[in-house]
Amino acid sequence: MMQLAEAARRLDPWAVTNALRALAQHEEKKKTGGIAKQLRRLIPHAGQDPGQHKALKHLHERTPRLQLDDLQLDDHVRETCNELILEQLKADALAEAALAPRNRVLLTGPPGNGKTSLAEGIATALRRPFYSVSYDTLIGSHLGETGSRLQQVAHYISSCECVALLDEFETIAKERDDDDEVGEMKRIVASLLVHLEHLPPSTVIVAATNHPEMLDRATWRRFQITLELEGPDRAKLTEFFESRQRRSPRLRLDPGAAAATLDGASYADAARLCDDVERQQVLHPEQEPDDLFRRRLARWATANGNYPRRPARHQ
Ligand SMILES: Nc1ncnc2c1ncn2[C@@H]1O[C@H](COP(=O)(O)OP(=O)(O)OP(=O)(O)O)[C@@H](O)[C@H]1O
Ligand SMILES: [Mg+2]
Q: Hey, whose CA ends up nearest to atom 30 of ligand 1?
């Protein structure tokens, strides 16, 4: 009750929501079901948002399926994700102690190494709706248009417990000192920062970028978690191929040879090679699977051998 009074005094709607949730849980424990139900009804959710249909034009909803266990992640990345998931799932317990779970994540790293997949994995683990913001409709040509659409989106994702992905985050969070930018971009970034700060803790926002150097400096500290998803080295590629082979017993390959040929490639490239080999092995059962793999790999070595190499520090 004190938490609710304090949140109301600060005119902080999200603190009020949290306090209501904690109070509802408290009443549920006391078995005063009627009061708990009435309190729960006061907690805002998506269905009550009148601007919902406008915001949904700029949000792409996907059913999250991918599991975090499907991804090969460095230990610290996996641990941090598990911490975030636990905090979100135990938000009521944290709210009772006037604490909030972390909810703002920034993912960086070269293309094809799991940024989008990780966001989906978090949504799957939390069993929450998964939205990604589509910039093609969000960014308008008229003055103020983008800002007001951004506000609709922020309002909508704030009203439901969801995971929202801001992919290619540099598109809307570009460095404001950039000489090419007009005042409009500066305003967009400024309002984006405010929206990020006011998101309720139950809305998990994942921003992802291949170009961290382009981000406005002030955006970094809006995120409580920053993770770099690096490309795999040869040992990690070998691990990846071994794991794919375990998961698809039909797939026959030599993990060490595949990793040597794809050294410097992304996980996405490695996954494509597996799909490619497996397709051939299914379509040509009359041929020796190991021969098929070797021929396919030789083809990859010549046709696809121009992977962007990992920066020297990762080698
Ligand atoms: N860490 C990983 N473990 C296993 N598979 C991965 C991993 N990262 C990427 N993949 C594979 O590559 C595909 C593409 O990855 P994803 O789209 O998540 O990369 P991204 O970092 O978001 O790339 P981009 O920067 O181009 O958006 C995934 O569907 C998955 O098959
Ligand atoms: Mg991506």
A: 268
Q: Which residues contact 211 (CB under 8 A, 6 or more apart)?
A: 170
47-95 residue pLDDT tens? 455 566 677 788 888 889 999 999 999 999 999 999 999 999 999 999 9
Instruction: Please give the model's pTM, rounded to 2 decimal places.
Output: 0.81
CA of 230 to the centre of ligand 2 (A): 13
Q: For the domain 46-228, what is the CATH code?
A: 3.40.50.300
- Domain positions in the chain are 2-42, 46-228, 234-314
Contacts of 170 (CB under 8 A, 6+ apart): 209, 210, 211, 212, 214, 215
Distance 117 CA to ligand 1 centre (A): 6
Ligand 1 pocket mutation pick from 71, 251, 267 by most atoms within 8 angstroms of CB: 267
